[in-house]
Q: What sequence folds into this?
């Protein structure tokens, strides 16, 4: 039953014939797991709490940083340095103190995903990396839980519902992940601040529709949004009979190692900081780079964009944006080690591979990019 305070709070819902008392009771009984409390998870969790979803699970292991506040509206200045799940808890309780919030301060991985997800009716994936998206998808398929998905990139967003009995899963759309480092993250290319707000609200809408069993959910439909054109379009999706996990003859019956599947290296922090190791995928640690800079034994190639270079740079580095590398090979020395720099290390890795294929042997990627260099070497360098 709904008490008097709840009748007041949800009166505008109850007035809707498609919701009514029965629908609001359904919302109160429902449990939803929100994976990630960033740009998507922020409006998603806030609207689900405001709508009266009875139990909200929150999965995140990160802390709030200043650069988050442009789009992650569940957090504020007072939350900087705080765990995102704790910051989110305060906001959600202020929105609706009756919602039961369960905190999962963990990184979701193959060893804990089933144990966490099994207790919820619906999963809403607000993550920004491919290994977690495949992990959430596969877990939802194996457990029979709907996966309400969204993603954002610069000015564009996508949303759909995966892993239902009559619809496709994420692997039906993307059978295999893109090559490691080939799709830059929002922290590298940027994202319009309101975009995840729009797509996270779409996710919340789809979750509520699933709970109420009303309307036409985004099952078998990929909603695509372009903010610059203010245009929504739709792509029809079909269940792939050959899908490795939801097809007619599935080969994936247990969760796998998703870091390996997506080509993500593990335990990078355990790599030595003392030397360049030519066998270590041509990568160099910040401490090793500092040693070479002091000995003037390195050419620093910064492949970021000019506006990034203005924010932070390593003294003596030469800026040649990634798209201009092929036209400027003559500017690069072959008698010196070259260290390639970008924001977080993925764009520079692609340039290292390109230079190797063009006859440059002593080329190394600054692991973790200039952001890691600022953290470990230059404490006064601006981070973004």
A:
């Amino acid at each position: 039953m709904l008490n008097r305070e709840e009748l007041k709070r949800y009166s505008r819902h109850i007035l809707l014939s498609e919701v009514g008392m029965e629908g609001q009771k359904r919302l109160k009984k429902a449990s939803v797991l929100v994976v990630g409390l960033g740009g998507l998870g922020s409006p998603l969790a806030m609207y689900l709490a405001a709508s009266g979803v009875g139990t909200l699970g929150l999965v995140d292991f990160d802390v709030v940083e200043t650069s988050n506040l442009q789009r992650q509206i569940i957090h504020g200045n007072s939350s900087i340095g705080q765990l995102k799940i704790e910051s989110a808890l305060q906001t959600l309780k202020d929105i609706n103190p009756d919602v039961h919030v369960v905190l999962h301060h963990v990184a979701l991985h193959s060893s804990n995903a089933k144990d966490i997800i099994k207790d919820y009716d619906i999963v809403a994936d607000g993550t920004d990396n491919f290994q977690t998206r495949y992990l959430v998808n596969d877990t939802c398929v194996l457990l029979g839980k709907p996966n309400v998905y969204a993603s954002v990139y610069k000015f564009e967003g996508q949303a759909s519902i995966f892993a239902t009995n009559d619809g496709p899963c994420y692997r039906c759309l993307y059978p295999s992940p893109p090559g490691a480092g080939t799709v830059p993250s929002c922290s590298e290319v940027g994202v319009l601040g309101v975009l995840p707000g729009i797509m996270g609200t779409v996710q919340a809408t789809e979750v509520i529709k699933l709970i109420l069993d009303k309307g036409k959910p985004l099952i078998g439909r990929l909603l695509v949004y372009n903010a610059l054109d203010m245009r929504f379009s739709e792509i029809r999706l079909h269940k792939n009979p050959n899908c490795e996990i939801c097809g007619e003859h599935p080969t994936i019956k247990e969760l796998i190692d998703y870091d390996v599947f997506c080509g993500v290296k593990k335990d990078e922090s355990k790599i030595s900081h003392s030397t360049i190791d030519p066998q270590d995928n041509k990568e160099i640690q910040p401490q090793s780079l500092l040693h070479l800079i002091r000995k003037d034994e390195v050419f620093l190639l910064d492949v970021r964009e000019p506006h990034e270079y203005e924010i932070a740079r390593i003294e003596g580095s030469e800026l040649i944006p990634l798209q201009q590398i092929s036209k400027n090979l003559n500017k690069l020395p072959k008698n010196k080690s070259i260290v390639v720099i970008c924001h977080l290390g993925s764009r520079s890795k692609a340039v290292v591979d390109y230079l190797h294929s063009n006859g440059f042997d002593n080329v190394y990627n600054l692991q973790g990019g200039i952001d890691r260099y600022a953290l470990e070497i230059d404490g006064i360098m601006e981070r973004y």
